[in-house]
């Protein structure tokens, strides 16, 4: 089966789980509608899939880990809703549909994000019925650190500061993206391993894979923003800078950006060298697939 | 010692703990400043104090429970920052100072709230080093439910819907306030008991105390908004309704509102009947103090 088909299969499992997770919680109807509008808007479900694959690869039962994996999509979705707000990036569209606040208003969009973030931690805690509480609480700590003010939220604050500033360096861009998008992707891998009770050396490999895949993913995203999906690599760059955002291609050009993405993907594959089985193969192929999207 | 002095003593302990909790987490300076501006703006620290007192009364060590107790103030603070936003209640002042977004801008205020909420769960998870992970994860589940879309966030959504609507009933008001402010106060008591490993019957007493104290607190707050602090009870009411908010005094008058608050305080005291020692006495006196504020 192609990597695309395998990814679609895993995404589908997550999708099914997401559908039921806001039911029976006493959520006011209007709020639940706003939360589901963004949560069920599709997408690759990359973070839950990474979490599940690491958990499975290292011996945990997928069914037991699923609510924890789903919580990663809750957190990712909340961050998109809040990032799209007029006071933030002011985006009217998300995944081809009107963004949350365009449909439900700003107040409800803020609350939908707050609700998704809080429910995420409830989902994580709920897995302690089937998994050892010590593992669950460690994974919660990992995810809170990654999503919090020293991670994803801090990365968005830096992103906004850098958008207003001239002359962002490559090191600043790398650090900002590592916080804004890398931290949650890395935490997805590490949490999956923690839920499976992995030893420190295995956790370090999960972390290395996540950091490398996260960096590759973000660099390729930057490149696709500039050259456009499916287009050739030789085009002039810099158009995204007009919107005030510094990107890898704007700083070092498309060719060197893609070299960097490929080195990160290779590092990710290398991190998984001790592991075998369908999940290990999938994770290796996924790292390669991320950079193959541009070509 | 008077109840005021004892409350001040407990609040001071919490205050000391709050000061150090955002340090050394790699939070960008501007974001940390915005978070601390609201977190360290004073206040009674009622929710952490309740959590600590229940934990202590039932045999847990206060030092071990402190980060969990502090997380309640993180959550309360985030909710105030987001509620004050222009898209929400649009309040320029909070605790006598400019609200967060007036000082740091809307984007930073949204992120400061998101950061506080996420760090709160990190603090909760961090207590598993000293307390049994099974208890910690149960308390996390309690708090996520209380603060989430079926609790505090849902209550704020209802509050906004009711502000736009004529003819809110007493039952609707009661339910909305139970979600918006009652749920977190109740969770503070229940979490404290859970961290101490309390049995179900004791947890039920903690819940009953929290629900009664939370209701009394909110009713008295409504009354104070109408009659003004330290003023007599016989004044004309309804002024708060001009701002579109339905209150207890507007629906049933000041006298009946205060009767209801007193009955709730008595119920709270009754819930604690099996317990003795300084924390039990403090919690009983606190329930009484809440209604004595008006007189």
Structure description:
Two copies of one chain form a homodimer. Chain A is mainly alpha-helical and 295 residues long. Chain A has one domain (3-292): Farnesyl Diphosphate Synthase. Chain A has helices at 3-20, 29-39, 46-57, 62-84, 100-104, 106-126, 133-147, 152-163, 170-195, 200-227, 248-271, 278-292, and strands at 93-94, 97-98. In chain A, strands 1-2 form a two-stranded antiparallel sheet. The longest helix of chain A has 28 residues, at 200-227. At the A-B interface, helix 2, helix 6, helix 7 and helix 8 of A face helix 2, helix 6, helix 7 and helix 8 of B.
Provide a brief overview of the structure.
The structure is a homodimer of 295-residue chains. Chain A is mainly α and 295 residues long.
Taking the sheet with the most strands of chain A, its summary is: 2 strands, antiparallel
Query: What order do the strands of the largest sheet of chain A run in, or round the barrel if closed?
Result: 1-2
What share of residues of chain A is helical? over 70%
Radius of gyration of chain A: 19 Å
The fold-level CATH name of chain A is Farnesyl Diphosphate Synthase
The whole-number mean of residue pLDDT values of chain A reads 93
List the total number of helices of chain A: 12
Q: What is the CATH architecture assignment of chain A?
A: Orthogonal Bundle
How much of the residues of chain A is beta strand, in percent? Answer: under 5%
- Total beta strands of chain A: 2
Per the principal axes of the C-alpha atoms, what is the gross shape of chain A? globular
């Amino acid at each position: 089966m192609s990597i695309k088909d395998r990814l679609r299969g895993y995404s589908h499992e997550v999708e099914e789980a997401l559908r039921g997770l806001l039911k029976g919680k006493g959520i006011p109807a209007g709020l639940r509608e706003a939360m589901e509008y963004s949560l069920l808007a599709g997408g690759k479900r990359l973070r839950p899939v990474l979490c599940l694959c690491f958990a499975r690869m290292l011996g945990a039962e997928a069914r037991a880990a699923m609510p924890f994996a789903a919580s990663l999509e809750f957190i990712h979705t909340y961050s998109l809703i809040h990032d799209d707000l007029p006071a933030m990036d002011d985006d009217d569209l998300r995944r081809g549909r009107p963004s949350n606040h365009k449909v439900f208003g700003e107040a409800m969009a803020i609350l939908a994000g707050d609700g998704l973030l809080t429910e995420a931690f409830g989902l994580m805690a709920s897995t302690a019925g089937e998994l050892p509480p010590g593992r669950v609480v460690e994974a919660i700590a990992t995810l809170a650190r990654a999503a919090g003010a020293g991670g994803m939220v801090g990365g968005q604050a830096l992103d906004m500061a850098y958008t207003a500033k001239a002359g962002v360096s490559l090191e600043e861009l790398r650090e900002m993206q590592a916080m804004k998008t890398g931290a949650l992707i890395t935490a997805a891998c590490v949490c999956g391993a923690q839920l499976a009770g992995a030893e420190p050396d295995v956790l370090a490999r999960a972390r290395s894979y996540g950091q490398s895949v996260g960096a590759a993913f973000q660099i390729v995203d930057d490149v696709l923003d500039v050259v456009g999906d499916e287009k050739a690599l030789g085009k002039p760059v810099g158009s995204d800078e007009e919107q005030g955002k510094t990107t890898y291609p704007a700083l070092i050009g498309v060719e060197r950006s893609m070299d960097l993405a490929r080195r990160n993907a290779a590092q990710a594959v290398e991190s998984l060298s001790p592991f075998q089985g369908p999940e290990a193969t999938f994770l290796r192929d996924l790292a390669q697939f991320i950079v193959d999207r541009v070509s």
